[in-house]
Amino acid sequence: MKKDFKEFYRDPKYVEKYEPIFIETPGGKYIHDVESSAIASLLPSGDSIVIELPSGTGRFSRSLSKEVNNLIVMDSSFPMLKKTLQRVSAPAANALATSLPLADGSVGGFVTIRLFHLLSRDEIFLFLGEVRRTLNKGGFFIFDINHDIGMCKALKYYQRTKATFTNWPNMTFVNPKEMKKILNSMGFQVHRIEKRFVIQTGVLRLAKFLHKMIFQLDRFLQNKCSDFCTKSYWLVTLK
Ligand SMILES: C[S@@+](CC[C@H](N)C(=O)[O-])C[C@H]1O[C@@H](n2cnc3c(N)ncnc32)[C@H](O)[C@@H]1O
What we know:
Number of helices: 11
Number of strands: 7
Bound molecules: S-adenosylmethionine
Strand order of the largest sheet: 3-2-1-4-5-7-6
CATH architecture: 3-Layer(aba) Sandwich
Distance between the termini: 35 Å
Oligomer: single chain
Shape: globular
CATH class: Alpha Beta
Number of domains: 1
Helix content: 40-55%
Order of helices and strands: HHHEHEHEEHEHHHEHHE
CATH topology: Rossmann fold
């Protein structure tokens, strides 16, 4: 059975561990910078309400609040949301992605980073339905997905252990082709996809001594071949 990530991220022990991965390890900082730049490159300008969901510990919230005029932060974990609110002063809601406390057509944009792999396939459809319901005409939706194939190719470690990402029982992997189909069926059109190569933080936790090598590999692969990516960041709108 799929792990309940909502419960997992409500555990104060894990909440305390989440942020240091990104700010205290060199690998984490590197990933955070790559992610921040991908989001910034996709973010349209405008004055409308932008929902950051899930905001997690708020590691993107401060920079987002400088870029957009009306940021609202949301997360299903109250302890995570409290961390966000230590960073930014913004309206907040302890809310589920599958049932948003927002009126129809009331939102100008969504920024959703590191959520899709935590949802079941049914929840992905419910969430996309909620985004479609609450976005106004011309609104945007930015999100990321993980690419399991790039990850597996990248790290021999995974090949050796045969622990391919698609076999990870707890996470949902939607490949880009499938994502395009789902988006199309849910009434969205894709505007831009930014590909990035980053080794996941889990790996950095496993092997800290690999950090230096991983940066070099990350940089090399990002410059070398955009098809060989591990994550992509999407900008989509309603059709
Ligand atoms: C990996 S963290 C990502 C947080 C932030 N976007 C970031 O990249 O640092 C995942 C977050 O999703 C939240 N979450 C998990 N399932 C959710 C759901 N169904 N609805 C809303 N938030 C959810 C968790 O509480 C957690 O804060």
